[in-house]
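Retro notes (design track)

What went well: tokenization of the new backbones is finally stable.
What didn't: we kept losing track of which sequence belonged to which structure.
Fix going forward: every design gets posted as structure first, then sequence, in one message. First example under the new rule, 433 residues:
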């Protein structure tokens, strides 16, 4: 057993009495109420999910296990010469809430190496799909195709509830170890004439992904930063919630994560990173080679709003300030690509868009989210096929949602089953005031 798994087991055993006590002694304590607009309006803000992996504050943004993004980057072990921590060390941190030593992180690297081989049938399935399938369809299909590998599913009938987490953790590690190769395969197969670069599993996950994508340094650090930043955003967002919901039926990690990816593929969620680049490219085409100005950007933003569309990369269901994930990527750009024209344009949009959205007066948050900045970095390092960007988000998101469903199983979280009401019932409540 790895030190991570042993530590996780201890943590789970320490934690269980807290959940049991809350349920037994305080189960009927009221923590929220539900209004009609929340009922119709996507359950916004209703407190009805529990996770200790991350917490999102509307002002300060995400905390992973209590740490803000800069604190997370500073605390975790890094490889010599790397600016960002390894994904492996972050996996340890998300699962246990503790900072691993370099040796503990390396043990995960070796563990993932042993789990990394992608079954050949996955590539056959991907090759059988129409070549113009969206890369997110390919990623989700590949994950689903591997469901027969699930250790949880195989063991289910002989397991006791308290043991569910063990094989879920195994499935999570198996899946996580394979995802970079699957994602890189999709990229090279679809956009590089099938010129596949075999993995080098001596490298950590970020560096190996960069290697399989065929992109030179510092893309290894981009991959590490990107996967960590996109990993988790507490439990209510569509991809995390979907993964949790599907897993709550005791569907295994493959079914659950594939479903989560399908939610991530929506333009209001993870696909926004693709939409941002598409918006910028269309804007540049309209500019016909002329230098962008704040006036032109403003006019284009209004055109988008007036045509009934959202400005991609702006707004958020929870955040009410600039997304710290945006800021983290902006700081990377300032350091590595300060004079890049696309970066300058994104900064120009940042100066203009919040004012336009505020003037329009609809959105509760006129500030940029993670997706407004992320494509610029990818584009700079040669990854210009922007319909691939959500796949990168998906690989990162796996880290968070898989850690979450492992803990869901450990704490015996119930089948999720909220209650629906009819419009007539809402009208009755409305009449009673
Ligand atoms: N452009 C235009 N209008 C926007 C807007 C934007 N960027 N953000 C919100 N609005 C509008 C909403 O569409 C809504 O209009 P309606 O009343 O006509 O339906 C109104 O403002 C109120 O919305 P809200 O309460 O501020 O936001 P929300 O919680 O309903 O939605 C989100 C949040 C992210 C879906 C929304 O801000 C949006 O569509 N943003 C653009 C897409 C995007 O960037 N998504 C990625 C989010 C991060 C992620 O998950 N990756």
């Amino acid at each position: 057993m790895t030190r991570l798994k042993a530590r996780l087991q201890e943590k789970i055993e320490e934690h269980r009495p807290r959940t049991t006590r809350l349920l037994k002694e305080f189960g009927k304590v009221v923590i929220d109420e539900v209004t009609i607009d929340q009922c119709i309006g996507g359950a916004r803000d209703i407190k009805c999910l529990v996770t200790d992996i991350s917490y999102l504050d509307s002002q300060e943004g995400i905390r992973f296990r209590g740490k803000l993004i800069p604190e997370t980057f500073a605390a975790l072990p890094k490889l010599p010469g790397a600016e960002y921590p390894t994904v492996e060390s972050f996996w340890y941190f998300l699962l246990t809430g503790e900072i691993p030593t370099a040796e503990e992180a390396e043990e995960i690297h070796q563990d993932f190496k042993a789990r990394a081989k992608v079954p050949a049938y996955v590539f056959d399935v991907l090759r059988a799909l129409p070549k113009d399938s969206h890369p997110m369809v390919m990623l989700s299909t590949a994950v689903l195709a591997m469901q027969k590998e699930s250790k949880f599913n195989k063991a289910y009938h002989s397991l006791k509830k308290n043991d569910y987490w063990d094989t879920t953790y195994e499935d999570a590690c198996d899946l996580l170890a394979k995802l970079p190769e699957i994602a890189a395969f999709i990229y090279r197969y679809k956009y590089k004439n099938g010129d596949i670069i075999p993995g080098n599993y001596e490298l950590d996950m970020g560096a190996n992904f960069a290697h399989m994508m065929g992109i030179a340094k510092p893309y290894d650090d981009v991959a590490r930063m990107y996967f960590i930043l996109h990993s988790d955003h507490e439990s209510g967002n569509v991809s995390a919630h979907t993964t949790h919901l599907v897993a709550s039926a005791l569907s295994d990690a493959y079914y659950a994560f594939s479903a989560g990816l399908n939610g991530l593929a929506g333009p209001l969620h993870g696909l926004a990173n693709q939409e941002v680049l598409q918006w910028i490219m269309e804007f540049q085409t309209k500019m016909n080679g002329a230098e962008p100005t704040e006036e032109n950007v403003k006019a284009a933003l209004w055109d988008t709003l007036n045509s009934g569309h959202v400005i991609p990369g702006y707004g958020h269901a929870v955040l009410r300030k600039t997304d710290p994930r945006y800021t983290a990527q902006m700081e990377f750009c300032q350091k590595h690509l300060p004079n890049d024209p696309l970066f300058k344009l994104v900064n120009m949009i940042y100066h203009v868009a919040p004012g336009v959205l505020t003037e329009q007066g609809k959105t509760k948050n006129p500030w940029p989210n993670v997706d407004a900045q992320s494509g610029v970095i990818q584009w700079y390092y040669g990854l210009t096929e922007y319909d691939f960007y959500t796949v990168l988000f998906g690989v990162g998101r796996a880290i968070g949602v898989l850690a979450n469903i492992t803990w869901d199983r450990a704490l015996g979280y119930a089948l999720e089953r909220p209650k629906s009401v009819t419009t007539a019932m809402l009208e009755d409540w409305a009449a009673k005031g």
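Added context from the reviewer: The chain has a mean pLDDT of 97.
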